Amino acid sequence: MLQALLWGGLAGSALFIGALIGLYFDIPKKIIAYVMAFGSGVLIGAAAFEMLYVAAKEEGLVPTTIGFLAGAALFTIINSLLAKKGASQRKRSSKNPEGHSGLAIFVGTIIDSLPEAVVIGISMIDMSVSLVLVIAIFISNLPEGLSSTIGLKQDQYSKMKILTLWIVVFILTALSSLGGYVWLDSASGHWIASINTFAAGGIIAMVSSTMMPEAYSDGGRIVGLITSVGLILSLILTFI
């Protein structure tokens, strides 16, 4: 139980770290793009190797396909609604365009992060954390915390208020991971597989619509290779 709390907190801490970077440092956009590309590869691998393959093997292709497409569709709908409120740039490291909403970006970040933390908790049910998921979520959260902080600064939020908000998110991610472990400990394999495939769909939709376009825009063609390195690393970690 304590481990679920700690691993979820570790993945969520990247948001707070990204916020600190956004407040106090000026990181070259290319470096952030490379990190984002690497994280995209690891996230794609985590969804494919850790979530989809296992679910398809245990529950079959039909429920896996339905759950995956449902998760992707729901993320796309929510993402579209958030974009209308100014949160379309929440995973971007550059300044957001005029008309953005720092608070909407922040809310979008929470919507992205909490389900991921729940999945980490679920992976702890068999007493072994999914390192692929933790690493992938940690890496993807860094630029999200950074870009959200830039938006909040543009909305004239004080440094203390911004840090307080991210501390709250850090606590929520840790508790979400714990909740995934506790609430679903006695859940059937079917339910766990359904949640994993649903989350995998959301992850792939998020990566393809937010992280990968930004990485290519700021990092250039080399990000294809960096993404591939992240993907093969996720496969290696799956076998460790």
Could you explain the architecture of this structure?
There is one protein chain. The protein contains 8 helices and no strands. The chain has one domain. It is globular and about 50 Å long. Helix 1 packs antiparallel against helix 6, helix 4 (102-123) packs antiparallel against helix 5 and helix 4 (102-123) crosses helix 7 (189-219). It has 240 residues and is an all-alpha fold. The two termini are 23 Å apart. The model is unreliable at 96-100 (pLDDT under 50). It has helices at 2-24, 29-59, 61-84, 102-123, 131-154, 159-183, 189-219, 223-239.
**What is the count of structural domains?**
1
Class inferred from helices and paired strands:
mainly alpha
Low-confidence spans = 96-100
The helicity comes to over 70%
Radius of gyration: 17 Å
Q: What pattern of helices and strands is seen along the backbone?
A: HHHHHHHH
What kind of sheet is the major sheet? none
What's the N-to-C terminus distance?
23 Å
User: Based on CA inertia axes, which overall geometry fits?
Assistant: globular
Task: Quickly count the helices.
Answer: 8
How big a fraction of the residues is strand?
under 5%
Q: How many beta-strand elements?
A: 0
- What's the pLDDT, averaged over the residues? 80
Oligomer: single chain
Question: What are the defining features of this structure?
Answer:
single chain, about 240 residues, mainly alpha
What's the layout of helices and strands?
Blueprint lengths: L1 H23 L4 H31 L1 H24 L17 H22 L7 H24 L4 H25 L5 H31 L3 H17 L1
Helix pairs in contact: 1-4, 1-5, 1-6, 2-3, 2-5, 2-7, 2-8, 3-7, 4-5, 4-6, 4-7
